[in-house]
Every structure is written in structure tokens, then in C-alpha cells.
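User: Is it possible to get a 3D structure for a protein together with its bound compound? The compound here is iron/sulfur cluster. I've pasted both below.
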Amino acid sequence: MKSFGGKVLFLERSDINTDEIIPAKYLTEISKEALGPHMLEDLRLEGFDPNGSGAKDAKVIVTRANFGCGSSREHAPWVFEINDINVVVASGFARIFRQNMFNCGMLAIELPEADISRLFEHQRADAKIDVDYKNSRITIVSSIGSGAFDYHISEFDRALIEAGGWVEFADARY
Amino acid sequence: MKMTLAEKVFKTHLRDEPFPGTKVLDIDVVMCHEITTPIAINDLVARGKDRVFDPDRLKVVIDHVTPAKDTKTALQGKILREWARRHNIRDFFDIGRNGVCHAIFPEKGFIRPGYTVIMGDSHTCTHGAFGAFAAGVGTTDLEVGILKGVCAFGEPKTIRIDIDGTVPEGVYAKDIILRIIKELTVKGATDCVMEFRGDVVKGMTMESRMTLCNMAIEAGGTSGICMPDEVTVDYLWPFISSDYKDKKAALEDFKKWWSDEGARYEKTLKIDVSGLEPQVTYGYKPDEVKSISELEGTPVDQVYIGSCTNGRIEDLRVAASYLKGRTISPYVRGIVSPATPKIFSQADDEGIIKIFMDAGFCVTNPTCGACLGMSTGVIAPGEVCASTTNRNFSGRMGKGGMVHLMSPAVAAVTAIEGRIADPRKFKKGGA
Ligand code: SF4
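Assistant: Yes, that's possible. Here is the predicted structure of the complex:
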């Protein structure tokens, strides 16, 4: 199983698409490693610098609705994986992106909009998120305090994470 | 139990339900292209699982960057080509015979009503136009599809979209789907199948239905879907004529897939197209849509006609009907990519290629081309492209560029004017 949790990168916008996560021009790469430096390169968001330390040190992304919409490219979760970000917390995901995350053994956590807003209160406070995978709970800790949130993922999602992804799960079973 | 079309397809293809609500389906067709498949192949090889579940159910094309533009894209083609050869995949379409995946595979008759279809490409939803459940997936799902012929989905929830009224002059399937996406928003159909029905859909060609279904993903939809009817039978007849005694028998058979009266829908959307104007996007999301009268006059640098949304023969015919006898603005670069070789030669036979060239368009080979800003037709920062494609995301056709999505009719007259223009103000067939 992958390791989950750590410093948070907040992306304060809905509908961030996979072209913004990893631009199409890098789809000619045939290794995950080569994608690494281009994470979120085309994302235009006030106060966000893809080359800044906020992005480079992050282990968890917190964002708004419909994250990962657009192209089906699995390069989007891969570019996070390669940068050691194995958790995305959002108020909603595009279907393919969400499935790709679990298929890679990564964690896509969906929380109600109100909880996401409470997470965003920690945006400028050097926040860290711990993931208690067993109990499906995340805890945010920052200079302004802390807060815990329960999340739900399906049994299938869990099975994928624990099997190390869908290929192994399916090959063993079908 | 009353079922929707999607529920019927799920029921007939259910292989396993490992957990409640997780449906593992048998897949009829797994489609592959050179952008998302080579990395799946490499991973399968690395895992010691370089196998395919059934070479005849794999359909493979090189379409995104063709001819290859550099060493990396040449390598992607090479991996795909060698893989297709070593697994005896007969339906492999390489340069000279290739075209945009979602245009060429239907044209070959690969998609039938009631099928399950996956591809590592989000616009796989296009194939739902045939009454199939067709979904875009990521590379891992694709790998499992290649290896085992299965894919997992949640319960199929369906949004019913009734499209009625009289389609006004100058308004096409593209305008209708843009209007629907505006209404649903970019996430309104997440995890849902969008079932397109009503008199307007019944009156549509397969090409127009594919345009509708193609953009289901832009509202977050898993698949678009249309009821297979006479139009579907006519389109597929060359491929199914030996399976049925006549077209009537085929239609009767197709009807078994129709959604039952009284089936349960997530929600129903009613669209009356009678007063609809041509629709154009203005922002960086496909639900940022306005009527043409609000955007008319906006200057553009490039016009692109093509893609899996609107690069089919009827699209080229529509555009040519406005371009005939006219030339495009000297300040605009016009590019057209017929979506398949068949469409290209048909357009040639009909004199459409000449109309485009005389008007000042560059005609490319069949390819995704400018659609995704990774091969031909990339725009510069600050430039604007009027495009018949399906995505206007920031940077989609080139970093710092902007895209307005529109129908081939709007694109054609926009090329003439050099500014977003209203096809209803143009006489077809020449100045
Ligand atoms: S034409 Fe564009 S949207 Fe369609 S498959 Fe090609 S790149 Fe994707």
C-alpha cells in the first residue's frame, strides 16, 4: 500500500481539468518519471506557482468540485504519484479521474462542500493532513488549529488500494 | 423490472459483482490509440502479462499525432504497431488508412447496439450513438480491458434528455449539445449515462447523433446513448446484412435494447430547440456557452474544422455550403482535417476539398490534429481559435491560447469574416 498524508497543497477552484494537471504535449512521454517536472504546469490560479515550494513539498491536494474533469489521461494521477502526492481531497471528482486514482492504488477522498470549506480555513497556515486509512478519517493540523473529518470510500476502492491496483486485482480474479 | 437501455446492457454483460454496486462487465470492443495504449503495453510487458484477451475484439489506430512529428511520437507508434503485429490484431489502422478513432471505428461497423465499448480516451462516449454503452477509461482500466476483456463500473444511472421542436436554419447537433451542457454544467451528468431522445434525435443522422453523444463527457457523463432505430439499421446495414433477413428484422432485434416505458431516470431534461440560436463557448469550460448574437464580431486568428465531434462528411458538407465561391479572411488561418480517409475521398468526390482549398483552407490528412495542441495547428499565446472540436480548456490548443467551440457552419462563416459570425446571415452556395 502507498503512504498517505503530509503537507497540503490547496487549489482553490472547481473544475480543474486534466489538461491543467498535465498538458497534452507531455502525453508523448512513455514513462511516468518524465512527467514529474510538469505537474500543474498550465494551471492558472491566483497565488499558485507550479514551481514554488508549496507545490514541490506537497503530499496531499485539497480542492473543490469536479476535480480531474476532461481528458481520460491517467497521466494526471501519475504526475501526482511521481511527485509523491497520493491523496486528493475534493468536494467531487470527474468519474474517470477518480477511478484512475484508485486503479493506481491512490486515494481520492470526497467530502461535503462544507467540510472542504473548513479545510480551506487552514489554507495559509502551513497545513498538514494525516490519513487514518483504517478508520477512514483525515485530520488536518495547522498553525491555526486542527480538525478531523470522516470520509467514505467503497469496498471496491479499498480492495484496489489494498491489492496495489486494478491490474493485480483483475488478473487474480478473472 | 422496467429498464433503461444502459441497464439492459449492464444486465446482459454482467460478469461479476465483487462488491455491492460494483459491476464488472464483459467488454465487446476495446479500442486503442497511440497516446494512452503504449504505456499500457509497456506496463503489461513489465508485469509479465503481455497478453490480449481476444485480438478480434481489439481495434487499434494511430490518430492523435500522425504522421509522427518527432522521435517520441514515432516511438509511440512503433510500440503500438509491434504489439498489434505480435498479437495478430487485424483491425489496426496505420498511416494512409488511419483516421480519428471515434470516426473511423463506427465507419468500419465495429459498434453495434447493445455493445459495451471502452477506450483510453474520454470521448469514447461517442459510440453510444449506436445504442451501445461506451465509456472512456484510464490506462489501467485499458490494460485490464486488453488483458481480460472486463471493466468495472458503478450502477448505471441515466439522465433522460428529450429534445423536441423544429430545428431552425443554421442550427445543428453541435448547437444542441452545447446548449445541453450549458444547462447541465460540466459536472451535471457525472457518473450518469445521458440518454438522448425525442423527435429531433429521431430525425438525426448517425453523424449528428455521434456529435451529440461525443460531448456527453463535457457534462461529466459516462456515455451518451441513443435508441437504435431505422437510421442505425441503415448505417450498419453493409455490416449486418448477412445476420438478418431484412432491415425490418434488424430493427425488431435492435428494439430489444430500447429503454422500457416507465424505466427509472435520475432526472429528465426537456429541450425545445425551436427558438435556438447557434451556440458558441466563450470561456475555458465547455459549459460557458452563449448564443451567437452575444459573441458575434469577436476576432479570431485560426479556424479549425475537424475532430471526433465535427470532422465527418456532413460537417464538411455544411461548412462547404457556406464556403463555396467565397474566400476566407486574409487574417485567418483556416485548417480542415477530414476525420477519416473515407470521408476525405468522399469530400474529394463531391468537390468539397476543392471548395475548402479555393477558399484558402489548409487541408490536412485525417488526424486529431489541432484539437489537442500536440501536433499540427498549435496556436500561439494570446491567439484565438474558432473550432469545431469539443474542449476549450485553457491551453488545449496551445499554451496561452483561447478556443471558441462552435458548429461547422459557424466555423465556416467565422473563417470568411475573420470574426465570429452568424451563419443565418449568409446565403449558402456562394456569395
Ligand atoms: S479529435 Fe480531439 S477530442 Fe477527439 S479523440 Fe482526437 S484529440 Fe480527442
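The first helix of chain B runs from residue 5 to 13. The pocket of iron/sulfur cluster is lined by residues B 64, 100-102, 121, 123, 307-308, 368, 371-372, 389-390 (CB under 6 Å).
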